[in-house]
Amino acid sequence: MTLRVVFAGTPEFAETALAAIHAAGFEVPLVLTQPDRPAGRGMKLHASPVKQFALAHGLPVAQPPSLKRTGKYPEQAAEALAQLRQAHADVMVVAAYGLLLPQEVLDIPRYGCLNIHASLLPRWRGAAPIHRAIEAGDHETGITIMQMDAGLDTGAMVSVARESIGSDDTTATLHDRLASLGARQIVSALAQLARDGGLPATPQPADGVTYAAKISKDEAVLDWTRSARELVCQIRAFDPFPGATTELHDTTLKVWGAQIVDEPVPRAVAGTVLSVGPQGVVIACGAADAAQAVRVTHWQKPGGKRLSTRDFLQGFSIQPGERLGAARSA
């Protein structure tokens, strides 16, 4: 059986999957992606990575702001729903699309809608599973191919592939591996669907449910009263967006790399600079009765580039005894 696959997705994670589906020879009669957004210094409209790929390969594109007839954009939703029906899809593949799919949409394709979700469901349902897995200090994550239902990432699981999270992984590095893994998993699932005319699916476990809320910029500020482990995980999780921040000399600095200091350190007020060297700036952290520290290895000042501590200190002074950021009260 030859499958007609409608694809819905927006960022690079989704583009990787669309490229794999296209390369595998599946017919793609329609691609849905978010409307163009302003970006960059000039705030010019930019097409999503999925749209750019689709146009480059001659695939039809629709960009409705909503798919809900009862929402803010009923006319655009109705038009998109008509396009979906005219595509005569056997299945829809959804990856980081960014719009909620009402039941009407889920019912249109012959075999429903398959979602490529970047976690081991039911852990980290929601918008930011890669960020939240690293932030929580998880040692493992993966890709779940899910048969979509009306809930938030609650559908039955078609397949699961696991991926280790390294101690130096950031959201950027883990994202790229999971994007490739997801692309391979969905192509395999589609091949099985084309061969067998169906996919076995297992309901998600009732236990272990967590939610990965969307990342907001106000989460970026480092609270030096947190433990060294929590701070390092936060810094890794917020790379590349939104970037962890701290204050020094009335300047907001981004912190792009840090390590837990294993050797003994003196007790000091959280945020106090304990030592400064070319390999990093050692900063006290944790509760008042703990002697913990992190070594910050990469920084960025406003308008500047991401730099190693060695290079950063050539243009920005940090001295032992100074205190970074007013730590938030517990």
Automatic annotation (TrEMBL):
Keyword field contains Isomerase: no
Annotated Gene Ontology cellular component terms: cytosol
E.C. number: 2.1.2.9
A Pfam family the protein falls into: Formyl_trans_N
SUPFAM superfamilies: FMT C-terminal domain-like, Formyltransferase
Residue intervals of the Formyl transferase C-terminal domain: 214-316
Enzyme class of the recorded protein, top EC level: transferase
CDD domains on file: FMT_core_Met-tRNA-FMT_N, Met_tRNA_FMT_C
Keywords: Protein biosynthesis, Transferase
GO molecular function: methionyl-tRNA formyltransferase activity
PROSITE patterns: GART (PS00373)
Chain ranges of the Formyl transferase N-terminal domain: 4-190
Keyword Plastid: no
Reaction equations catalysed: L-methionyl-tRNA(fMet) + (6R)-10-formyltetrahydrofolate = N-formyl-L-methionyl-tRNA(fMet) + (6S)-5,6,7,8-tetrahydrofolate + H(+)
Transmembrane segment boundaries: none
Family of this protein: Belongs to the Fmt family.
UniProt function note: Attaches a formyl group to the free amino group of methionyl-tRNA(fMet). The formyl group appears to play a dual role in the initiator identity of N-formylmethionyl-tRNA by promoting its recognition by IF2 and preventing the misappropriation of this tRNA by the elongation apparatus.
Protein name: Methionyl-tRNA formyltransferase
Gene that this polypeptide is encoded by: fmt
